[in-house]
């Protein structure tokens, strides 16, 4: 999958010697502040997993949630303690699918394990933070989320770095039970020389709903991800990616939905603001597995803010049989003069007008998120539109 | 005099022809001036030049606002000084209407006005002008203009393509601007809105880039309705 330009010299990073676990009572305040930028408010959350480099430094599961049967812990601990957890490990994804996955398997250095028991509808979001603090480190994580039948949960993952150079590999497997719902919000904010490779596989059971909302405020040097959701009968998936790339970043993002069952619906939306000398490829794949009754829509939109930036849209539809209805739209362009002039006549400077238009462009998919997390997400989007 | 245009000559960028050919106009504080004229006579061009839209190039003449020449000011500087404009056909913008409303109140340090009084409650959660009807567009544009609390409001055909209910709401908006002491320059093609307005200071007729008639509104309107603009083209009596 990697383009030639997206190649990474994996050997130059420090993968850590052993599975070190160092738990702290308190997260240093400077880390807390940094985590806030990516939507993580440790002090507010009832369920929190905070990992720095290879170490889980903070875990919190308040008694009220524990009593409901929720489990939050490192994947290492979960695999040791629960035999049943093993059947979910490398099931939605294959460890042999690409080099990234092989590395993740070979050097597993934690990641979160979250279990939500059947029928539990949790209002407050669970928060996880994957934080890189050490220079030249590789942070391969493997995350596992299991949402029981009929349960509903929101998970916010913030990933960020305070060091210049690093490699972040995030394997995530999500299992959404029948009639269950997972809203997964991932906010990334990277430093200039970080390579980022999420690998996400999701299986949505009958009548289940998967809402994936990915915001990348600042990619590192390269980013490549294409989360894949497999939908069983009556399941729905909404995959939104909001990207603002800058500097010389090479970004390849999007989403893939496999319509496996009947009466499935899915939507993949990618919006990219492309600045400086960066390059963004927006991919979307909607495919039916066999002749199923499925409806899907794909949207890729790029907004170019620089003559040296590049945007590519690659929407792909694969329908097998006559029962699928798959559509797509793609558009790449610049900010319209007319809109800019209108806003300037309303009292905004050119800079402010650009920021308003960019902010509006970034606002996609927020309405799919629960009310109580929208504000945090909007703050991230606001800050993306301001720093142009 | 809060506002004055003297011998204004204007071209549109990239074109040789003058659209405005020596326009003179003065507006006092709290006055309501109506500008009428056939299509293409230069009415909208005058408003867009006053607000400073970049494609309208002033070749000659001056625009004075609050005693200061504003020919070379940026649109946002003019807006900050107190000039507000309601466009005839504003562009669709992918930004939530309510978001822009909040930004305007912050920018101009004004209070939010109740949406329902302007008939825009159902529109604020939508992208600006995305799929709005003619009336909805004009009402929203009017609301945004009032929100700025302008000293001079430029209203470009707020009455074209709207239903009767919208017309009444827009007229109410104009009255509100008047009550707040704003001066108004109102462009109307057919003059529908005038039926709703009690006080008009002066009516001007623009033909081919020049104001050819300025005077008492009833008389001018009567002439337009009876003879059409051709009366003014010929020079009248």
Would you write up a description of this structure?
The complex is a heterodimer of chains A (388) and B (237). With 388 residues, chain A is α/β, with parallel strands linked by helices. Chain A is built from 7 helices and 20 strands. In chain A, strands 2-1-5-7-9-11-14-16-18-20 form a 10-stranded mixed beta sheet. In chain A, strands 3, 4, 6, 8, 10, 12, 13, 15, 17 and 19 form a 10-stranded mixed beta sheet that branches. Chain B has helices at residues 43-51, 75-81, 97-108, 134-147, 164-179, 217-227, 230-233; strands at 3-12, 18-27, 32-36, 56-65, 68-69, 83-86, 93-96, 127-128, 152-156, 183-187, 202-207, 210-215. With 237 residues, chain B is α/β, with parallel strands linked by helices. Chain B starts with a strand and ends with a helix. Chain B has a single domain (3-233), classed as Rossmann fold, CATH 3.40.50. In chain B, helix 4 (134-147) runs parallel beside helix 5. Chains A and B meet through helix 5 and helix 6 of A and helix 2, strand 7 and helix 3 of B.
Describe the protein's topology.
The complex is a heterodimer of chains A (388) and B (237).
Chain A: H1 29-37, E1 47-52, E2 55-61, H2 63-67, E3 71-74, H3 75-81, H4 99-106, E4 112-116, E5 126-132, E6 137-147, E7 152-161, E8 165-176, E9 181-189, E10 193-204, E11 209-218, E12 222-224, E13 228-231, E14 236-245, E15 250-259, E16 264-274, E17 279-288, E18 294-304, E19 310-318, E20 324-333, H5 337-345, H6 350-362, H7 371-386
Chain B: E1 3-12, E2 18-27, E3 32-36, H1 43-51, E4 56-65, E5 68-69, H2 75-81, E6 83-86, E7 93-96, H3 97-108, E8 127-128, H4 134-147, E9 152-156, H5 164-179, E10 183-187, E11 202-207, E12 210-215, H6 217-227, H7 230-233
Parallel strand pairs in B: 3-10, 3-11, 6-9, 9-10
Antiparallel strand pairs in B: 1-2, 1-4, 4-5, 7-8, 11-12
Helix pairs in contact in B: 4-5
């Amino acid at each position: 999958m990697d383009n030639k330009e997206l190649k990474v010299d994996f050997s130059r990073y420090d993968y850590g010697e052993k599975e070190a676990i160092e738990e702290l009572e308190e997260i240093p305040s400077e880390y807390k502040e940094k985590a806030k930028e990516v939507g993580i408010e440790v002090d507010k959350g009832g369920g929190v997993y905070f990992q720095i480099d290879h170490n889980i430094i903070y875990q919190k599961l308040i008694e009220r949630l524990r009593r409901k049967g929720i489990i939050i812990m490192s994947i290492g601990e979960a695999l040791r303690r629960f035999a049943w957890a093993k059947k979910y490990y490398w099931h939605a994804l294959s460890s042999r699918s690409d080099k990234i996955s092989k590395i993740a398997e070979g050097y597993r250095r934690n990641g979160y394990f979250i279990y939500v028991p059947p029928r539990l509808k949790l209002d407050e979001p669970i928060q996880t933070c994957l934080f890189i603090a050490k220079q030249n480190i590789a942070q391969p994580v493997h995350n596992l989320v299991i949402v029981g039948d009929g349960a509903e949960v929101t998970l916010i993952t913030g990933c960020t770095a305070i060091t210049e150079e690093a490699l972040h590999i995030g394997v995530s497997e999500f299992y959404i039970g029948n009639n269950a719902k997972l809203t997964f919000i991932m906010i990334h904010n990277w430093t200039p020389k970080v390579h980022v490779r999420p690998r996400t596989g999701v299986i949505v059971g009958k009548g289940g709903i998967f809402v994936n909302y990915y915001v990348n405020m600042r990619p590192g040097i390269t980013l490549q991800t294409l989360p894949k959701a497999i939908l069983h009968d009556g399941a729905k998936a909404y995959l939104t990616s909001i990207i603002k790339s800058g500097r010389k970043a090479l970004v390849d993002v999007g989403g893939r939905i496999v319509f496996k069952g009947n009466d499935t619906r899915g939507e993949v939306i990618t919006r990219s603001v492309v600045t400086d000398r960066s390059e963004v490829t927006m991919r979307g794949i909607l495919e039916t597995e066999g002749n199923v009754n499925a409806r899907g829509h794909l949207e890729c939109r790029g907004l170019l803010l620089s003559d040296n930036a590049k945007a590519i849209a690659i929407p792909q539809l694969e329908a097998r049989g006559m029962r699928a209805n798959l559509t797509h739209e793609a558009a790449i362009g610049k900010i319209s003069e007319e809109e800019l002039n209108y806003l300037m006549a309303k009292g905004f400077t050119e800079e402010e007008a650009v920021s308003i238009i960019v902010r509006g462009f970034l606002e996609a998919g927020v309405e799919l998120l629960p009310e109580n997390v929208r504000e945090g997400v909007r703050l991230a989007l606001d800050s993306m539109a301001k720093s142009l | 005099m809060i506002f004055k245009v003297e011998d204004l000559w204007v071209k549109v960028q990239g074109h040789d022809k003058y659209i405005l050919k020596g326009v003179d106009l003065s507006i006092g504080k709290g006055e309501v001036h109506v500008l009428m004229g056939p299509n293409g006579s230069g009415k909208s061009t005058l408003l867009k030049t006053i607000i400073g839209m970049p494609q309208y190039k002033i070749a000659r003449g001056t625009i004075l606002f609050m005693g200061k020449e504003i020919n070379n000011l940026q649109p946002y500087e003019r807006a900050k000084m107190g000039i507000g404009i309601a466009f005839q056909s504003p562009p669709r913008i992918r930004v939530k209407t309510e978001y822009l409303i909040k930004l305007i109140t912050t920018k101009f340090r004004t209070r939010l006005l109740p949406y329902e009084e302007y008939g825009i409650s159902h529109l604020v959660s939508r992208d600006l002008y995305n799929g709005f009807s003619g009336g909805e567009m004009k009402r929203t544009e009017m609301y945004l203009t009032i929100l700025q609390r302008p000293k001079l409001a430029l209203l470009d055909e707020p009455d074209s393509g709207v239903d009767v209910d919208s017309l009444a709401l827009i007229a109410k908006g104009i009255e509100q601007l008047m009550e707040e002491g704003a001066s108004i320059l109102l462009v109307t093609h057919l003059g529908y809105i005038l039926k709703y307005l009690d006080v008009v200071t002066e009516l001007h007729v623009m033909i081919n880039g020049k104001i050819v008639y300025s005077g008492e509104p009833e008389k001018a309107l009567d002439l337009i309705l009876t003879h059409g603009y051709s009366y003014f083209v010929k020079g009248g009596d």
